[in-house]
Write a structure and sequence with these properties.
80% of the residues lie in helices and 0% in strands. With 135 residues, the chain is mostly helical. The relative contact order is 0.08.
Length: 135
């Protein structure tokens, strides 16, 4: 009986063949097994949205590593943004600090603004930031 490869079978094979390799790669990059597990999961979610065109094992790993690298960069950027925000909060008097709910909303908004700025061309982004920061 002939078996036809379906997208879910291909994805299952891809996941089964490469998940532990990708998790190890991300653990080494992030030095944190929980963040590595989250980003490995996010990598495979992205693969579900855009599966690789028929490829051998080397190309599959390259595709996964490329996606994971982009997610790591986003992760590090968010961490930097969050640390800058937490530092600015630490510098404020206690009476002026926002509530935990307000903090969560502000951090989420900062992530969204950062993502929007990242999508702009370099010169446009620079002009926008200079106008906002220096009038």
């Amino acid at each position: 009986m002939d078996t036809v490869s379906t997208p879910s079978t291909s994805f299952s094979d891809l996941y089964g063949n490469h998940h532990s390799w990708l998790l190890g790669l991300l653990r080494r990059r992030l030095s944190n097994r929980w963040d590595a597990a989250d980003l490995a999961h996010d990598t495979f979610i992205r693969v579900l949205k855009r599966p690789p065109a028929g490829a051998d094992e080397t190309r599959e790993r390259s595709y996964l590593a490329t996606i994971a690298r982009g997610l790591c960069i986003d992760h590090w950027r968010r961490r930097q943004l969050e640390q800058a925000w937490l530092q600015s909060l630490a510098d404020r008097p206690q009476a002026l600090q926002p509530s935990p709910e307000q903090r969560a909303i502000i951090v989420e908004t900062l992530y969204e603004v950062d993502a929007m700025l990242a999508r702009l061309p370099h010169k446009v982004r620079e002009a926008f930031l200079l106008a906002q920061l220096h009038g």
